[in-house]
Amino acid sequence: LLRGRWRAARPRIVQRSYGNGTETHTLGLLRQSLDDVESVRGAWRPALEDVERISQGLAAKKRGVGSRAVCHRLNQEERKIYGLAKQNGFLSVKGSGYRKERKGSPLINTFRQFCDAKGACFVRLEKGSEMDTVIVDFSPLRVVDDAPIVSLAKQVARVTVGIGEDHTEEVNLSQQGLREGFHVEALQTSAIWGVRERELRLSCDREAAKELAAALVESLGIPKDLSKKKKKKNKKTRMPLLEEDEGSY
């Protein structure tokens, strides 16, 4: 089996203030182990154009990207949320994002496809009534051993949310699918909806959840689509027309 190297963005040194001063946590110590992560070379991935096409209910140019059994078409409200997710690097949904009439979550399915096309972890924030949950799905990386990446994500969670510190909220850290074996054939030949999720979940309050999701995006090297923000920034403002004085020509 041919393998390649997965490269993460350089982890940051994160500082967090506590009651007794400032404690510095160095995430860069995990950098060396991340460089040794092996990924499946030539893994099946969709084109970004096809991800956009199936999100609009159109047929993908490449066979196998979409499936009638997996919902991807977004409505107008979901498309706005999808656009924000691409800009922020993580998806934010109410609850599980499930749509009864579609028998699934088009938003989650589509953004997971987008992350697969980018070769990046899929980070989402599920908003609950009492607690929010930040979920990291490592499956879009299509690596054969994600242990170092999982360790980095856990360390980011400890640093950002302050697990184990006296002056921070209690959190509930759980793993889902991480102990399951890798199906290398699926990583090589299947669309992401045919690959089992490998998720790390962290439940905390709303403010901490947003901070954690943003920190994971930065530390795991998840790309952001800043094209729309740049267009708005570079957009020239038109000067208002001055009304002509009476009798002027």
Task: Provide the helix percentage.
Answer: 25-40%
Strand order of the largest sheet: 5-6-7-9-8
Mean pLDDT across residues:
76
Tell me what portion of residues adopts beta-strand conformation. 15-25%
Task: Count the beta strands.
Answer: 9
Output the number of helix runs: 8
Weakly predicted, low-confidence segments: 5-26, 164-170, 242-249
Beginning-to-end CA distance, first to last residue? 80 Å
What composes the largest sheet? Answer: 5 strands, mixed
Counting helices, strands and paired strands, the structural category is alpha+beta
Q: What does the radius of gyration come to?
A: 21 Å
Would you mind describing this structure in some detail?
It contains eight helices and nine strands. It has a five-stranded mixed beta sheet. A two-stranded antiparallel sheet has the order 1-4. The chain has a two-stranded antiparallel sheet with strand order 2-3. It is an alpha+beta fold and 249 residues long.
Summarize the structure.
This protein is an alpha+beta fold and 249 residues long. Helices cover 33% and strands 18% of the residues. The protein is globular, with a radius of gyration of 21 Å.
Question: What brief labels describe this structure?
Answer:
disordered C terminus, 249 residues, alpha+beta, globular, two-stranded antiparallel sheet
Q: Could you outline the blueprint of secondary structure elements for this entry?
A:
Layout lengths: L2 E3 L7 E6 L2 E6 L4 H5 L2 E3 L7 H8 L20 H13 L2 E4 L11 H13 L3 E6 L4 E6 L9 H16 L9 E5 L7 H6 L9 E6 L1 H14 L7 H8 L15
